[in-house]
Amino acid sequence: MNVQPLSGAPANNAVYHALINPGDTILGMNLFHGGHLSHGSSVNRSGKLYKVFHYSVDPKTEQINYDEVERIARENNPRIIIAGYSSYPWVPDWARFKQIADSVGAYLLADISHIAGMIAADVIPSPVATRISLLSQPTRLPHWPPRRLYHVIQRIHLKEN
Ligand SMILES: Cc1ncc(COP(=O)(O)O)c(C=O)c1O
Fold first, then answer.
1. Does any ligand 1 atom lie closer than 6 A to the CB of residue 44?
2. In this model, does residue 88 exceed pLDDT 90?
3. Which is nearest to 151 in space by CA: 21, 11, 46, 52?
4. Residue range 32-65, pLDDT digits in tens
5. Alpha-carbon gap, residue 77 to 103, rounded angstroms
6. Contacts for 156 with CB less than 8 Å, ≥ 6 apart
7. How far is the CA of 91 from the centre of ligand 1 (A)?
8. What residue spans define the domains of the chain?
9. pLDDT at residue 154 greater than cutoff 90
């Protein structure tokens, strides 16, 4: 666990900076489908520093199509897959994300900025149980001040960059 007096976007930046190099590939949800700027938007440093692929929601179900996420991951070999959103009203399937990340040798970052309160209240499942690689969480969104962030890091095997 790493606690810093910062917030969610720098939390994600810290994860990228620690695990990958500029030019490496990340895969996150499209901003316009519920993702966050720091998940690789072209107007954010994450989109400028890294090679970004995005998954979207299925136009019919308006939910993530995990087979599609897997297809994009297999085709592009991201080093980090990001799950967790600013505007997506469904519960991410952490286990499926983990399975996809493992199948392409990617780290799985669970950005639970918006749903940590509901996870703490046991309303939705915690990604920690799924053994995600890393979790980013600013305290300000679910708990309000103080403005802090924390990372939970588990079973992470750092590769040489
Ligand atoms: C999913 C997600 N990640 C990161 C952030 C960034 O958090 P902050 O504004 O605390 O930097 C937000 C903020 O809304 C968010 O929804």
1. no
2. yes
3. 11
4. 999 999 999 999 999 999 999 999 999 999 999 9
5. 10
6. 107, 133, 134
7. 17
8. 8-153
9. no
Question: Is residue 12 within 8 Å of residue 138, measured between CB atoms?
Answer: no
Q: Does the pLDDT value for residue 66 go beyond 90? A: yes
Measure Cα distances from 50 to 9, 38, 80 in Å: 15, 11, 11
CATH number of 8-153: 3.40.640.10
Percent of the chain with pLDDT over 70: 76
Does 98 contact ligand 1 (Cβ within 6 A)? Answer: no
Give the ligand 1 atom nearest the CA of 84: 1
Helix (H) or strand (E) run with residue 97 in it: helix 94-104
Does the Cβ of 133 fall within 6 Å of ligand 1? Answer: no
Residue 85 CA, closest ligand 1 atom number: 1
Which is nearest to 43 in space by CA: 18, 66, 72, 9? Answer: 9
Kind and range of the H or E run holding 98: helix 94-104
